[in-house]
């Protein structure tokens, strides 16, 4: 298990080649590839690896090639205004006076155009394809195979308009390399013989896949530790010692670290961490919800995405996980019963005969979202030995594997596998508000 110092342990000093701040899925893949490259690596995690506070603890775990479209698309602002009036809608912004949120929304609105949306889609799809290849190799039967399932995915549409719009996009999506096809009713019954749908139509993606979380995260952490990476839990970053353009020391609640290189990969907490170094990130925590129930006997066998409702269903053996919503409410971890009820109502509208089952857990977590849905990955201009890997948003599990590889290539000076220009850390400006700098 990841190392956790006892509460009365004397703080110590560590000197790894690279310190990764954040023990979530992104931080672990950064550590994995850095260690493969020969660096000594330490990871500090503010909580426990795979604990309920982590974004990758309770989500639906979708990876594969489905869902590469960015949040910022043409038409979203107009739809968003209607959704804003409904606290049960798939996308909700909690009204409040927040300068950072307003600046984020301004950049988000600018990204809602055809040109940017198409360019971002191609980048995200490339990342998801590369990550799927990595996961297939990593999760071979003799590895983490029990935590990864690739058996296809159904995308269901309730309305004629939603289905017809999706069908029109299939040829272009296939041309872009996504194996998407229209299902007839007989094919849907063959794929899901025990589940009754009330829908207008459905699509099928044979590259639909998902990770069993948090099991994958915890098992992968053990794999990374076995490679020689030190993982320090309950180690919150409290400050930095800086000299000129270099980070000399990272102070945490479990000791001080003097790495040659530092990587911030702290998910939704990355913006707060970066502010300590005078770096402002356009990053908003987007809260999502899941409800995990005992799997009813007529539960779907495949992962299902409910198209217009933006709700996902993931079969996890004797459990079924229902997930959805994107709520911009700051770092408010309160669980809204109305949001949970909205997810359940959406599921019932698509699968009206799905049996009511005992609820095991209701969970919410923060997805770190950028305005254009592209993560921040690269060097921070202000420092010679600081890189960032954050902002992977609502599809972070599907981007993290290749993202970790790219960040390791940046840190070690290797030629990156992808063009890094879309991921520039300073593309929205790079200074934190003076009153927040420490």
Question: Describe it for me?
Answer:
There is one protein chain. The chain is an alpha/beta fold and 438 residues long. 30% of the residues lie in helices and 25% in strands. The chain contains ten helices and 22 strands. The strands form four sheets. Strands 5, 7, 8, 9, 16, 17, 18, 19 and 20 form a nine-stranded mixed β-sheet that branches. The protein has a six-stranded mixed β-sheet with strand order 11-3-2-15-22-21. It has a four-stranded mixed β-sheet with strand order 1-14-13-12, with no helix packed on it. The longest helix has 25 residues, at 114-138. The model is unreliable at 1-11 and 433-438 (pLDDT under 50).
Keywords for this structure?
438 residues; alpha/beta; 9-stranded mixed β-sheet; 6-stranded mixed β-sheet; 10 helices; disordered N terminus
Radius of gyration: 21 Å
Major sheet attributes: 9 strands, mixed
Derived from helix and strand composition plus strand pairing, the structural class reads alpha/beta
Shape: globular
Strand portion: 25-35%
Helical fraction equals: 25-40%
Q: Which whole number gives the mean pLDDT?
A: 91
Number of strands: 22
Low-confidence stretches: 1-11, 433-438
Continuous helix count: 10
First and last CA, distance: 34 Å
């Amino acid at each position: 298990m990841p190392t956790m110092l006892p509460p009365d342990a004397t703080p110590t000093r560590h000197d790894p080649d690279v310190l990764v701040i954040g023990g979530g899925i992104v931080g672990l893949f950064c550590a994995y590839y850095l260690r493969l490259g020969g660096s000594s690596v330490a990871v500090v995690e503010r909580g426990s690896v795979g604990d309920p506070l982590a974004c990758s603890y309770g989500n639906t775990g979708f990876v594969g090639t489905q869902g590469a479209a960015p949040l910022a698309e043409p038409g979203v602002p107009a739809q968003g205004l209607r959704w804003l009036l409904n606290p049960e809608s798939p996308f909700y912004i909690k009204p409040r006076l927040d300068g950072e949120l307003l600046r984020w929304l301004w950049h988000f609105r600018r990204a809602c155009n055809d040109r940017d949306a198409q360019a971002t889609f191609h980048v995200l799809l490339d990342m998801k394809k590369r990550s799927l290849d990595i996961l297939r190799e990593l999760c071979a039967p003799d590895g983490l195979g029990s935590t990864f399932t690739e058996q296809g995915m159904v995308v269901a549409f309730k309305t004629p308009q939603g289905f017809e719009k999706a069908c029109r996009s299939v040829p272009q999506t296939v041309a872009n390399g996504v194996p998407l096809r229209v299902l007839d009713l007989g094919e849907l019954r063959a794929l899901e013989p025990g589940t009754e749908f009330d829908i207008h139509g459905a699509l099928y993606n044979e590259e639909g896949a998902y990770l069993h979380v948090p099991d994958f995260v915890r098992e992968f952490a053990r794999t990374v530790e076995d490679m020689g990476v030190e993982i320090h839990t309950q180690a919150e970053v409290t400050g930095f010692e800086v000299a000129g353009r270099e980070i000399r020391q990272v102070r945490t609640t479990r000791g001080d670290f003097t790495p040659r290189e530092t990587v911030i990969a702290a998910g939704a907490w990355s913006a707060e961490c970066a502010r300590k170094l005078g770096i402002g990130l356009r990053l908003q925590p987007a809260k999502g919800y899941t409800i995990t129930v005992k799997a009813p006997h007529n539960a779907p066998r495949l992962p299902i995405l409910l198209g217009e409702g933006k709700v996902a269903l993931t079969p996890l053996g004797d459990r079924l996980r229902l997930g959805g919503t994107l709520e911009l409410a700051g770092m408010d971890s309160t669980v809204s019963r109305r949001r949970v009820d909205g997810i359940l109502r959406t599921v019932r509208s698509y699968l009206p005969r799905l049996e009511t089952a005992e609820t095991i857990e209701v969970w919410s977590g923060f997805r770190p979202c950028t305005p254009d849905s592209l993560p921040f990955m690269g060097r921070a201009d202000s420092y010679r030995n600081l890189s960032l890997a954050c902002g992977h948003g609502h599809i972070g599990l599907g981007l993290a594997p290749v993202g970790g590889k790219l960040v390791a290539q940046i840190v070690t000076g290797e030629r990156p596998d992808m063009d890094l220009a879309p991921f520039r850390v300073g593309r929205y400006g790079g200074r934190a508000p003076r009153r927040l700098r420490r």
